[in-house]
């Protein structure tokens, strides 16, 4: 087998590749499903039904997709500039905590003041958190993979301290949870009796704005140049340190907003189990989308579908719900293979 | 074609090698006689290195045969794709990039991989004796006990050649051996090669430098597009004929018409520029460059060229002394400020510093100007404006590429350099830094780049030309200065310097003192 670089990628191929990757992952995951004793086709059918088969299922999937779009964008922006932000989970939690601090007292009567305020607070908290490892990277050359990853645990412990201490709800009877977000700051639900909330709209707008930033503005141009070839970017007159800080602000801010959505749109109060790993799943979403901000929406919908569908399927068939993680992880691997296929022509001989 | 008196030691017949759609070698025939120096001449991508890699067993030819003479003569087929067999058949290769272990002594490097690891003492003594004999016979003097890390490039090359001889090479292949040598070292290499050839060694000398081919070889084989286009005795040919055969068309000579220098654009007075650890800083440099003038900076690479180049590019700042740009003292320089001040910069490593390979051609064209009008408005890129500019650069600077959307890294070296040249010259800069502007380019692109630099000089630019190619320096420069260990010599008018004199200065000698120590 020999690989030959492609001069250019035909459009049909870049569209087909992710679809093939997903189908390949589903085919591979049929093996453990069969071993677990589940009828494979029925299991996938139940998954699809569980995720998209009813009005409630669809709203549930969309509610799951909203934070994934935001953390996916956070990873996509950072990875494009080769800032390896593995800390979206921590940024999400700190964003949620900031939203509670600002939004648990009704200091303004209008949601038009309160909602932007908690969004801003959450974005600022996430952005500032990512600034720490980014400054360590640009100033001292500290590997940000390690620092962003470890900060996740620091932040989780910090949130734990908050919800058992200063932010604890006096009405919680000792449960480790914060005071609730006041009604004026809560993100309104988009449909009655569904959990999908304004956060989905915010996520979609964010995807469009991030695409605009990366593809059409001078700051995006700098981010792409610094990511692809920092030496040439510096030679051309870009300040790579300043560009990295800007990337960190955008990436951390997006992850922080994801946290605001969860706390003010779904849960209503802060706990240490607010996120089932949306920050980490965002990395998978970004990779599935090949770091393209618009494709992040599709990738996030896919991952949300798998998570929601697998939940309901595992209940119906008695298969462990870890199958969801398995499918998402396998899709990441098949997607990496597909990107190889996009970049190289394969010759068999 | 081979002189009948001398027996053939190597014969290649119909060697063909394809890489995908590319025909790297097309039915190449080649014959080498005992004691002969054969020059293999061709441009980049003509198939020279592929052919030698096939001979040495790194690649397997799709078609064709290789026959090598045994120690007693008589051609025998060489098994393909087997470097060990090539070594055993007496083929030695000295690569362009040396394959020595820096932390070992020259002696250890010479016997490494040849001597068995058991019974070390006895065989090492024999090895030393053999090496002493080889050195005496060939004139290749090497300090056997010295660490390779402390040897000069010329010495390292002698170790490489000696390694081949130690392995009883009867055929020696040298891939662009003079690329890293000073003129004096080159001359010394040629003397060695003549001596070795007189002793019966057959030499294949791969090069694209015409002067050297004419100086050293008995016969020239010219490759173009993977094919042998000519194979002729060196005595019956000349520079112009070889150049035309190599390129496939006549190359007009580059002529530098006289111009009277104008106002100074760059002045250095006792300027000191620091360098990162392990690199040579610029020490107390004095320099003056005027409009309508090209100042050439000669020197073996690593003697402070980077520091000088970084200063003018805005990547480094002088820590003492004085630097004036267009008559004003330079302070707080950054790459962007230098560009805005009217400095055009052609970097030494175009892939690393000149372009972002993943970006489209139109993005590359605005890489230094993206933040300025007319390329951006309200923070948004004006892509149509950028594309029109890129189209103009592609047209005006003869860049061969599929269009403005093409990915920059897929352009050939020559076209990438033309793109950078267009980006820089289109702004009509008053000062141009050209650092190795033609490195790795083929003859046609070299001629083009030279023509453009001379045109910029005519328009009134002052050009600081840093180059290791002495022919290039003497063709283009009005004055030449030499960098040696971070010290810049006074600039001399080109009419007063010779390649020989430059070579002495590049090796650290004052040309007035003669060359005893060289």
What layout of secondary structure does this protein have?
The complex is a heterodimer of chains A (349) and B (518).
Chain A: E1 2-5, H1 11-35, H2 40-52, H3 55-80, H4 88-103, H5 111-140, H6 144-164, H7 198-216, H8 218-228, H9 230-236, H10 240-267, H11 278-288, H12 293-317, H13 323-343, E2 344-347
Antiparallel strand pairs in A: 1-2
Helix pairs in contact in A: 1-2, 1-13, 2-3, 2-12, 3-7, 3-10, 3-11, 3-12, 4-5, 4-6, 4-10, 4-11, 5-10, 7-8, 7-10, 7-12, 8-9, 8-10, 11-12, 11-13, 12-13
Chain B: E1 8-19, E2 22-33, E3 37-41, H1 48-55, E4 63-69, E5 75-77, H2 83-88, E6 91-94, H3 106-111, H4 120-138, H5 153-166, E7 171-175, H6 183-198, E8 202-207, H7 210-216, E9 219-224, E10 227-233, H8 239-247, E11 264-273, E12 282-290, E13 293-298, H9 305-313, E14 320-325, E15 328-329, H10 335-341, E16 343-346, H11 350-354, H12 361-365, E17 376-377, E18 380-381, H13 383-396, H14 413-425, E19 431-435, H15 443-459, E20 462-466, H16 470-476, E21 479-484, E22 487-488, E23 492-493, H17 499-506
Parallel strand pairs in B: 3-8, 3-9, 6-7, 7-8, 13-20, 13-21, 16-19, 19-20
Antiparallel strand pairs in B: 1-2, 1-4, 4-5, 9-10, 11-12, 11-14, 14-15, 17-18, 21-22, 21-23
Helix pairs in contact in B: 14-15
């Amino acid at each position: 087998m020999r690989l030959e670089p492609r001069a250019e990628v035909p459009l049909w191929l870049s569209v087909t590749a992710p679809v093939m990757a997903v189908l390949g992952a589903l085919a591979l995951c049929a093996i453990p499903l069969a071993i677990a004793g589940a009828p494979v086709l029925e299991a996938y059918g139940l998954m699809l039904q569980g995720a998209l088969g009813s009005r409630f299922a669809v709203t549930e999937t969309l509610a799951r997709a909203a934070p994934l779009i935001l953390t996916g964008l956070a990873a996509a922006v950072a990875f494009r500039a080769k800032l390896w932000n593995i800390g979206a989970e921590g940024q999400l939690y700190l964003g949620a905590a900031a939203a509670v601090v600002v939004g648990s007292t009704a200091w303004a009567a209008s949601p038009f003041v309160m909602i932007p305020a908690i969004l801003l607070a959450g974005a600022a908290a996430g952005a500032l958190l990512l600034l720490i490892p980014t400054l360590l990277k640009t100033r001292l050359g500290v590997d940000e993979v390690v620092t962003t990853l470890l900060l996740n645990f620091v932040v989780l412990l910090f949130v734990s301290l908050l919800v058992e201490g200063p932010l604890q709800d006096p009405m919680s009877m000792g449960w480790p949870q914060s005071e609730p977000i006041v009604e004026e700051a809560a993100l309104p639900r988009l449909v009655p009796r569904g959990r999908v909330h304004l956060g989905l709209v915010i996520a979609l707008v964010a995807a469009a704005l991030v695409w605009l930033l990366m593809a059409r503005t001078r700051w995006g141009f700098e981010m792409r140049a610094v990511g692809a070839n920092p030496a040439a970017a510096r030679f051309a007159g870009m300040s790579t340190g300043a560009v990295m800080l800007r990337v960190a602000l955008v990436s951390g801010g997006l992850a922080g907003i994801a946290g605001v959505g969860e706390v003010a749109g779904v849960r209503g109060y802060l706990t240490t189990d607010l996120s089932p790993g949306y920050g980490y799943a965002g990395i998978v979403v970004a990779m599935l989308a090949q770091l393209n901000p618009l494709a992040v929406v599709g990738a996030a919908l896919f991952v949300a579908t798998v998570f929601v569908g697998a939940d309901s399927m595992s209940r119906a068939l008695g298969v462990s719900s870890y199958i969801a993680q398995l499918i998402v992880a396998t899709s990441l691997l098949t997607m990496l293979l597909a990107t190889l296929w996009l970049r190289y022509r394969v010759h068999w001989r | 074609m081979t002189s009948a008196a001398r027996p053939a030691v190597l014969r290649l017949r119909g060697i063909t090698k394809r890489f995908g759609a590319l025909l790297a070698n097309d039915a190449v025939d080649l014959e080498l006689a005992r004691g002969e120096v054969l020059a293999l001449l061709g441009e980049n991508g003509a198939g020279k290195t592929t052919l030698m890699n096939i001979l040495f067993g790194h690649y397997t030819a799709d078609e064709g045969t290789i026959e090598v003479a045994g120690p007693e003569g008589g051609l025998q087929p060489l098994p393909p794709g087997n470097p060990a067999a090539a070594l055993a058949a007496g083929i030695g290769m000295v690569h362009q990039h040396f394959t020595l272990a820096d932390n070992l002594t020259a002696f250890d490097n010479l016997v490494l991989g040849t001597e068995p690891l058991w019974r070390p003492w006895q065989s090492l003594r024999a090895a030393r004796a053999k090496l002493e004999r080889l050195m005496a016979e060939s004139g290749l003097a090497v300090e056997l006990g010295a660490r390779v890390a402390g040897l000069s490039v010329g010495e390292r090359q002698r170790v490489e050649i000696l390694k081949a001889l130690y392995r009883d090479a009867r055929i020696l292949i040298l891939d662009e051996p003079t690329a890293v040598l000073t003129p004096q070292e080159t001359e010394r290499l040629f003397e060695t090669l003549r001596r070795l050839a007189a002793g019966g060694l057959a030499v294949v000398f791969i090069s694209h430098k015409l002067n050297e081919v004419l100086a050293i070889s008995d016969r020239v084989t010219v490759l173009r597009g993977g094919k042998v286009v000519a194979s002729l005795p060196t005595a019956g040919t000349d520079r112009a004929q070889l150049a035309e055969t190599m390129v496939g068309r006549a190359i007009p000579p580059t002529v530098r018409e006289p111009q009277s220098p104008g106002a100074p654009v760059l002045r250095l007075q006792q300027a000191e520029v620091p360098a990162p650890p392990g690199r040579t800083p610029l020490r107390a440099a004095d320099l003056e460059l005027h409009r309508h003038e090209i100042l050439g900076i000669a020197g073996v690479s690593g003697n402070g060229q980077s520091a000088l180049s970084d200063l003018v590019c805005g990547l480094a700042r002088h820590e003492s002394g004085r630097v004036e740009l267009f008559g004003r003292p330079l302070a707080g320089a950054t790459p962007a400020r230098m560009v805005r001040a009217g400095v055009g910069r052609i970097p030494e490593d175009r892939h690393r510093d000149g372009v972002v390979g993943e970006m489209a051609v139109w993005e590359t064209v605005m890489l230094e100007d993206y933040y300025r009008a007319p390329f951006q408005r309200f923070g948004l890129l004006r892509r149509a404006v950028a594309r029109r500019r890129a189209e103009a650069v592609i047209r005006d600077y003869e860049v061969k590429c599929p269009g403005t959307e093409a990915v920059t890294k897929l352009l050939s070296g020559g076209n990438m350099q033309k793109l950078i040249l267009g980006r820089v010259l289109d702004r009509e800069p008053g000062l141009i830094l050209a650092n190795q502007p033609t490195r790795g380019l083929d003859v046609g692109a070299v001629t083009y780049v030279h023509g453009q630099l001379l045109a910029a000089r005519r328009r009134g630019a002052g050009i600081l030309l840093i180059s290791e190619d002495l022919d290039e320096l003497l063709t283009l420069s009005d004055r030449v200065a030499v960098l040696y260990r971070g010290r810049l010599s006074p600039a001399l008018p080109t009419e007063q310097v010779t390649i020989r004199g430059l070579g002495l200065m590049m090796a650290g000698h004052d040309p007035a003192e003669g060359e005893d120590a060289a």
